[in-house]
Design goal:
The chain contains 21 helices and six strands. By secondary structure, the chain is mainly α. It is elongated.
Length: 478
């Protein structure tokens, strides 16, 4: 049997197959049917704006202001757009070979049938010329994409991203005072706290979230080359520029773009995707660090009952959710970077490369959502391994070389004798050697420190040498 003959059709992409449960919320906003539903919404609201936008009379001579029942009927076209409507629209498009024109004809059919619901007195049956009035396809598409992407960001992506940050906040707060051996260049270095390190991720991710939360979603409705040419040729007495502004900003809730070619130039999309990609890269670095902390033993994983870590090594609990997150963040970044780089380019007043490119926005979001799902899930399945963390600190007393030599510098500046060449003397003692607690105590005792300094240094251990790390966690709440 050919797999292509099986129905329902087998998904080509894992986003719609293996991982469908994690990415399905995006279908509501970034699927082809979601885009067509948004197109219906824009077309219908444009009709209502033209007929009723001036409240007292229509902008279009010969069109009466729509009744409440007529407006309800028009808006029901979008609300009722389901499996049957999707199939019907696909059938229309198979003839038109034009997706937006198919939507226009789909609405026309509903206008033709309006008398069956509203009675013979309704004017909707003769208002087919009002559908797509003075519009180019990009007028409808740019607004529809903006609404879809705005909905996906605000209702799906942002909640998932905030969930990841919230989990890291919980880690930061619960481990703010837990000392941790740092590794710089992969080598033991000045201790920190696990909470402070988690707070670093919170701060980095939160800055990108804030930018995305402030994102503008631009839209335009100004005709074939952005000049309102057809509008003014047909009805020169209408203030089309102000009407466009009112429709985009007030009726659709987007930011009006007054200056475009035939297309809305997608700069806002490039800004959004660039920031999302930056968020992804930070999350990718987080996934890698957690993976390495697990490998090092700083984090222990909670085994999932019944799960298999390896087909041949029964003992293994693999950090697969972090590895999955890494891979999918890379795929998401690749698509987001491509979108942000190419969508801002258009030949003169119009070409169609952006139309094809934008059809992949859902995939870019999908890989990112899948990564957030796995990264957040992975974080739920780990906990600090305090025994390993304490053992690492106890095994690396050489990290106290930094405070000792710095204290020697301070003493030398005060004129205390015997504090010359502090860095070199500590380096000779500690570099390349295994250093014990006793070695550190002995070295301190041989120096002519002032009493309070000597006591302070003698009291230090790798576990207590964490500076202001614990209090720095408070900055994530500011």
């Amino acid at each position: 049997m050919n797999l292509t003959d099986i129905t329902p059709h087998i998904a080509l992409s894992p986003l719609d197959g293996r991982y469908q449960s994690a990415t399905s919320p995006l279908v509501e906003y970034l699927s082809e049917p979601a885009l067509n539903r948004a197109r219906i919404h824009v077309e219908v609201e444009w009709m209502i704006e033209l007929a009723n936008g001036n409240s007292s009379h229509s902008f279009i001579p010969g069109v009466e202001p729509l009744t409440e029942d007529e407006i309800e009927y028009l808006r029901a076209i979008e609300e009722d757009f389901g499996a049957t409507g999707i199939a019907e629209l696909a059938e229309i498009e198979s003839v038109t070979r034009h997706d937006v024109k198919a939507v226009e004809y789909y609405i026309d059919r509903r206008l033709e049938d309006a008398h069956k619901t509203l009675g013979e007195g309704t004017q909707l049956g003769r208002l087919k010329p009002l559908v797509h009035f003075a519009c180019t396809s990009e007028d409808i598409n740019n607004l529809s994409y903006a609404l879809c992407i705005k909905g996906a960001v605000e209702n799906v992506w942002l909640p998932a991203a905030r969930g990841l940050v919230t989990r890291m906040v919980e880690f930061a707060e619960s481990t703010r005072s837990m000392p941790l051996l740092s590794l710089t260049h992969g080598q033991p270095a000045t201790p920190t706290t696990l909470g402070k390190e988690c707070a670093v991720w919170v701060y980095r991710l939160s800055r990108q979230l804030h930018a995305i939360e402030q994102q503008e979603y631009l839209g335009k409705i100004n005709g074939a080359t952005g000049t309102f040419g057809a509008h003014l040729a047909a009805l020169p007495d209408v203030d089309w520029v102000n009407l466009s502004r009112q429709f985009v900003s007030q009726r659709l809730g987007l930011t009006w773009n007054p200056l475009t070619t035939q297309i809305e130039n997608h700069d806002w999309q490039a800004e959004l995707y660039s920031t999302m990609s930056h968020f992804n890269r930070i999350a990718h670095n987080l996934a890698q660090d957690i993976w390495m902390y697990i490998s090092r033993g700083v984090f222990a994983q909670i085994p999932v009952k019944g799960a298999t870590g390896s087909s041949t090594m029964p003992h293994k609990v693999n950090p697969i959710r972090f590895e999955n997150a890494e891979a999918n963040l890379e795929l998401s970044c690749a698509l987001l970077d491509s979108l942000s780089a190419t969508l801002v380019e258009s030949r003169w007043q119009r070409d169609l490369t952006d139309s094809t490119t934008q059809r992949n926005v859902g995939s870019a979001f999908g890989y990112g959502m899948l990564a957030l799902y796995n990264l957040s899930g992975g974080l739920e399945s780990i906990h600090p391994n305090e025994a390993i963390i304490s053992g690492e600190l106890e095994d690396n007393w050489e990290v106290l070389g930094e405070p000792i030599q710095t204290a020697m510098r301070a003493q030398a500046l005060k004129g205390v004798e015997g504090m010359d060449n502090p860095y070199e003397r500590v380096k000779e003692l500690m570099r390349g050697h295994s250093i014990s607690h006793e070695d550190v105590e002995k070295f301190i005792s041989t120096l002519n420190f002032e009493e309070d300094t000597a006591e302070r240094l003698a009291a230090l251990t790798p576990a207590t040498y964490t500076g202001a790390a614990e209090s720095l966690v408070d900055f994530i709440q500011q």
